[in-house]
Amino acid sequence: MKQLYFILFTVLLAHQAFSQDKYLTKEGYVSFFSHSLVEDIIANNNQVLSIIDTKTGEIAIQLLMKSFSFKKALMQEHFNENYVESHKYPKAKFIGEIINFTDLNEQINETEIRGTLSVHGEEKEITTIAIVDIQAEEIIITGEFTVEVADFKIKIPSIVINNIAKTIKISFELHHKPYIK
Amino acid sequence: MNNTKFKILFGIFVIVIISLFSMLNCYNKPHRDIRSSKPDLALNSEYLLNEFLQDEVAANKRYTDNIIQIEGTIFKVSTSDGNSVITIKNNNSESSIICQLLPEDNINALKLKKGEKVIIKGICNGFLLDVIMVRCIIVNNK
Fold first, then answer.
1. How far apart are CA A31 and CA A22, in angstroms?
2. H or E segment at A9?
3. Which of A38, B68, B72, B110 could serve as a FRET partner for B44 with CA atoms 20 to 30 Å apart?
4. CB contact under 8 A, B83 and A91
5. Which of B30, B64, B81 has the CB atom closest to A46's CB atom?
6. ipTM of the prediction
7. H helices of chain B, where?
């Protein structure tokens, strides 16, 4: 019995050592903004999952398209059903790397993030400058970049073509905490 | 002659007004009212989680976009961007159900504590590492 406890204890310890390299958030914030002469459209998502591997600087972000909330219910409906087809492509993903992450200090850094964004079943390389704020118990990543609607094969009906911008601004703010099981 | 012309014009005018009004109504259509809606399904949290863990695609078809009432044990009460968030989790599972509440229930959420049983109603949005529910309200806690 003692042996069993010992094994359990070491496994637990080993696991904890492993998981200390991971910082995670399940309540990250991502929003997008479309500006046109007719109207401005903003949608917020507060349920973004993001994981950083502090050993390598790799970052993986996932979100549900349905979690974007709009002011108008009709817009949200059109967005999910007609434009991004959430039933077919429920998730958007970003897998990339924070450049020179291991060289960053415990302070506010400006660095590049490079990776692949996949939305609506289409992939696109993204390079953007982000602010990486490293604190004792938290890694905060904030920034913004723009994407072209056409790059993701999202079809906008001609009747609303003037209401929706061709270039969409995406902002993000992710507060990662050490991952402890 | 003049009279019939007027009638036709007036008819067109009325039609235009009505269609404009209905368009505006449609445009301003409110979000679904969770509190007054009957849940499409009532489940316990463990069951819902297992459904997503076993077959995410099938579970998405079955549960996503539906108003679901779930019963489970509170693991965490937190806030995110002005909304209360209740995490429901069983001890034997890695994953949880994250319920983002409507702001109107923020005060009620503050009264809840870890380990308490709760019944929550909201829209299921899908699964990342956890089942995600939005626009939730607290039905009751016991």
1. 24
2. helix A2-19
3. B110
4. no
5. B81
6. 0.80
7. 2-27, 45-54, 56-63, 106-110
pLDDT in tens, A129-177: 999 999 988 999 999 999 999 999 998 888 888 889 999 999 999 999 9
Which fold does the domain B41-141 belong to in CATH?
A: OB fold (Dihydrolipoamide Acetyltransferase, E2P) (2.40.50)
Is A4 inside a domain boundary?
Answer: no
pLDDT score at A144:
95
The CATH number covering residue A28 comes to 2.40.128.110
Q: Considering only alpha carbons, which residue of chain B is nearest residue A45?
A: B81
Residue A85 and residue B100: Cα distance in Å, rounded?
A: 23
**What is the chain A residue with the closest CA to B91?**
A181
Are the Cβ atoms of A67 and B134 closer than 8 angstroms?
yes
| B130 interface with A at CB cutoff 8 Å | yes
Tell me which residue in B30, B83, B98 faces A73 most closely, judged by beta carbons. B30
Q: How many CB pairs under 8 A join A and B?
A: 56
B60 chain-A contacts, CB cut-off 8 A: 90
- Flag whether A7 is in a domain: no
* Binary contact (B98, A47; C-beta < 8 A): yes
- Looking at beta carbons, which residues of chain B come within 8 Å of A87? 64
pTM, rounded to two decimals: 0.82
User: Are A73 and B29 within 8 A, CB to CB?
Assistant: yes
Chain A touched by B133 (CB under 8 Å): no
Pick the closest to residue B131 from B91, B101, B92, B89 (CA basis).
B89
Q: 3-state SS of A136-176?
A: CCCEEEEEEEEEEHHHHCCCCCHHHCCCCCCEEEEEEEEEE
For every one of its 142 residues, what pLDDT tens digit does chain B have, with 9 covering 90 and above? Answer: 678 889 999 999 999 999 999 888 888 888 888 888 888 999 999 999 999 999 999 999 999 999 999 999 999 999 887 889 999 987 777 889 999 999 988 888 888 888 899 999 999 999 999 999 999 999 975 4
